[in-house]
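Troubleshooting entry. Yesterday's outputs looked truncated, so today I'm pasting the complete records for two proteins to confirm everything comes through intact. If either block looks cut off, that's the bug. Protein one:
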Amino acid sequence: MEQRILQYRKQIDEWLQTMEQRALTLSQHGEYSTQAIQRQSDTQKTDTEKSDIEKSDIEKTDTEEQAMQEMVQDKLKEHLVQVGFFQHERLIHLIVTVTFALLEMLAIVLSVISDSLFTLLLPIVILILLIPYIRHYYILENEVQKMYGQYDRMRRLQQTAAGSKIEKPER
């Protein structure tokens, strides 16, 4: 499970980085297209030619933004499902870790009260099991927290894609 969550989070980080660069490129492309249209209007084009160029640039950018927005929406849904799985796993490991910690405390109290060899070895055996549980829970907790950050980045990306569509001037 540990490898799965680490691998999934790395994959999402790479995807987010790619999509954020793509969103940046689209926004720069939109600015560039506007500048190109301005220059073309300065070079004595007819009104019909200017209108056709503007329409094709707007349609191309709208299609790219719409495709990006759909990709982000799909990935967002998938990510929420994965976060749910890892939250469940985290809850189960929290219960197991707390149970072993309580058993460790009881074993320590028992070893203080009793003089038996078994009661002296029991806390050591439980501690040997408790340490890996704590480590695993620590990794799960931190990775799920990072996945929350990824979710926030996806929401910002989604809002950016939706916002750029709203902010476009009508021509």
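Protein two, checking that the full record survives here as well:
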Amino acid sequence: YAILRNWVAQGAALDAVSDSQVKSLRVAPAQQTLQPQETYQLRVQAAFADGSTEDVTALCTFESTNKDVAVVDRGGRVEACGAGDAALI
């Protein structure tokens, strides 16, 4: 809400489509090992066609493929729940 509201308040100017295209997303850390109850923070970085980069973590949604092993909240905070492997998407 705040991002959209601020954009409208600033005149809702559009970037050129060719410059604002997302060329890549990078999630860090790409791999992590934890003990149960340990946590870490995911960060998502977008690279745009104009060469700029931006932290877009707050715009992303996250999910664990195995919630018995790891859970991830809306903000990208991961918590290990048990032994095993889990992919975060």
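Both blocks look complete. Sanity check on protein two: Strands lie at 22-28, 39-41, 43-48, 53-55, 70-72, 77-80.
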